[in-house]
Amino acid sequence: MVIRDSLQRRFLVIGGFIILLGLIAASETLHDRTAEIIVWTEALIERAPVAGLVVFLLLAMLSAMVAFFSSAVLAPVAIYAWGEGWTLVLLWLGWLFGGIASFCVGRYFGRSVAATILGEDKISDWQEALGERTRFIHILIFQAAVPSEIPGYLLGVLRYRFRHYLAALALTELPYAVATVYLGASFLEGNSSVFLIAGVGLIIVTAAALRMHRQYFG
Question: Has this prediction a pTM greater than 0.70?
Answer without folding.
Answer: yes
